[in-house]
C-alpha cells in the first residue's frame, strides 16, 4: 500500500504530539507541586486604585495563613473541653499539620506585662488621658481608689508598677483582651447560653491550595471528628479557613469537570457512532480533540504558570467545539464516497476550517483582552486548543483516514437536515426571521443586570454560615471590607488612623459599630504619646507641665528639677504606698517612646502584623470593622479624613463587572464588524450579510430569551455572546463552503453543521448544570445561542441555492 503524500508531515506532527503529551504529563505530575490552582483570589482582577490597596487586600485575605480555625462545642462545659483536647491530640498525630494548638502552654502574665513597663507613661487610654488632663485631677484620690479595688480586679500589672492602673487599662484595650474567648483550664473557651465552645487551631505543613495537602488534612480532620463525636456524643464542630474554601472550590470544579467531560464525551461518542456508523471516525475525532486539550494545557501552564480549575471545567466544554474541525473533515470524506482523496479533501475543507478558526479565535481573543485573569486564562486555553485541533486535521488526520469511507453519514440525519434546510432558507425564512426579531424586542426590554461578585465566587452556604458563627462566638472580626490608611511615613499613617478611630469610638458609644481592629489601638503615634506624657506631667504637678508635642527630651531633662522631683513619690506615699515602691515608680519616669520597631518585636503583637503595610508600594495600615457591613455607613466613617478610604473588594469587583458589561456592547459590535469584513473579503459585500445573519440573529434571540426568562444580564452572558458569534459564524461558513461539494447529496452539508452544533450543545450546554454561577451563565447563553444559530444557518446560503 502506498502511503499518502501527507505522511512526512503527519510524522512530524505525531512526533510533536508525543513531545507535547510528555511535557503535559511532566507539567501536571512531574514537578512535585501541581499547577492546578484553587485559590479564588488568583482569578480576580486588580480592582483597587493603586498597588498598596491590592497589597492590603491580599494581606487581609491571608491573615489566617494556612490554618484551620476550629470551634468544638457542647452543652456541657467539661465535655466541650475534653472533646477539644481529644481533637487536638488526634490531629497532632498527622504530619500534615505543622502544629496543633488546643491546650495553651504554661503562661506567665509577667511575660505579657513586663515588655510594656518601659513605655507605661506614654501609653494611656483616651479616658485616662482625659481624666488626668482635666483641671482638678486628684492624684492621691486616684491612687487610693486603686488600692481599695477588690482583690483580683486588677489581674495583670502589679500595683507597684502601675499604681494608677493606666497600664492595666491600656492592656485591657488590646485585641487579645477584647475577644470572647478566655483562658480556662489551659483552653481558650467561649461561653454561650447553649453551652461552651473551645478553640483549636491547626496549622498546615503546606499550602492550603496544594491539592495533596488539602486532601490529607481534610481526611485527618474528618477522622478526628468522627472519633471525637463517638467518644463525646452531642459534640459539634465549626470550621473555617482558606483550606476549606479551596477544597470546596476544587470539589465543585472536579464535579463539574466530570459532569461536563464525561457526559459530553459519552454523548458525542454515541452521536458520532450513529452518524458515521463506524468506530474509526470516532477514535480519530477524539484523538484530534485530545491533542487540542493537551496543547491547551501545555500552553496555558507555560504562559500562566498554573491552571485554574475553572479553566479546566471550561476546557472540558471545549471538547464540543474542538471536535468540529475533525467532524467537518470526516463528513467531507463520508460524503465524497469512493472518489475521496485525502490530499484533495484537505484542500476542500481548508478554506472553511481556516475561516471558521479565525472567527472563533476572534471571539476568544476579545476575552484575552479583558484584564481579568480568569477570562484571560480561559481564552488562552481555548485559542491554543482550537489551533492545535485544527492543525491536526490538516497534518495528521489525512494519514490516519486516507482511504474513502465505507458508509456515508446517516441517511436519517441527512433527510432531517434537508427538511429543515428547505424550511429555514429563502425569502419566506427571511421574512419569518424579521418577524421573530420584532418579537424579540419585548424580551430585550425586560432585561435586567446583575454584577455581583458571587457570580464568580460562590462558596457553599454552610461554610459561610460556619465562618460567621465562629466570628460571632470567638469574637473574631474581619471580612472583605476594611479601611485603608495611607501616609508618607509611619507617623503620618498612625496620626491619620487615630483620626479615624476617634470617630469610630463615638460610633461604638452610639451603637453603630461593635468595634474594630487596627494598629492604632496598639501603637499610638508619637504625637499622641507626647500628649499622654504631657497629661501625666500635668498630673504630677497640679495640672501644669503640658509640653509641646513630642518634647519628651525636655521632660527627661526636667525629671529631677524642683517642682517635678518627687510628685509621684509624695502622692503615692500619701495614698498609702511604701516609700521604696514610690521611689521606684518615680525613677522610671518618663520612660521610652513606644516605636514601630518595638511593636514589631513584641511577640504578643505578632498575629497582628498583617495590619501594617510597608514596602515598595508605600506605607499604610488596615483597620477592620466589626459589627457593621453596610458600605455606605463604613464609607461615611472615612469621609473628610485625609489618607483614609474604604476598601470593599467585592463591591470593587462588582463595579468592575458592571463597567466591563457596559463596554461589552462595543466589543460585540466591533467583533461583528470584523467578522463581517472577513466574510466580505471571502464572499463579497452582497453575500456577506447572509453569512453574518445567522450568528447575529442567534445573538439577538439568545438575549431576548434571557429577558423573557427573567435572567439578569451579566458579564458572563455577554462574554458567552462573543463565543456565540465565533461558533455560530463557523456553522454559516461550514454550510456555505460545503454545499458546492455535496450537490449530489442535498442536505449532507447541513447535516454536518447540525452534527457540529449538537456536539457543541452536549458540552457547552452542560455548563448550564455547573455549580458555579458564572459557568451556568456561560452554558445557558451558549445553549440558546448555538441552538438558534444552527437552526438559522440555512439563511447563509445564496438565494439561487435555497429550496424555498
Automatic annotation (TrEMBL):
Keyword terms, alphabetized: Cell membrane, Membrane, Transmembrane, Transmembrane helix
Domain Membrane transport protein MMPL: 66-424
Membrane topology: Multi-pass membrane protein
Gene3D superfamilies (UniProt xref): Multidrug efflux transporter AcrB transmembrane domain
Keyword Protein biosynthesis: no
Regions annotated as coiled coil: none
Transmembrane regions listed in the UniProt entry: 258-276, 283-304, 310-331, 352-375, 381-405, 426-445, 666-684, 691-709, 715-735, 747-769, 775-797
Pfam families according to UniProt: MMPL (PF03176)
A Gene Ontology cellular-component term: plasma membrane
Main location: membrane
SUPFAM superfamilies: Multidrug efflux transporter AcrB transmembrane domain
Keyword Phosphoprotein in record: no
Compartments where found: Cell membrane
InterPro entries listed in its UniProt record: MMPL_dom (IPR004869), Mycobact_MmpL (IPR050545)
Matching PANTHER family: MEMBRANE PROTEIN MJ1562-RELATED (PTHR33406), MEMBRANE PROTEIN YDFJ (PTHR33406:SF13)
Annotated protein name in UniProt: MMPL family transporter
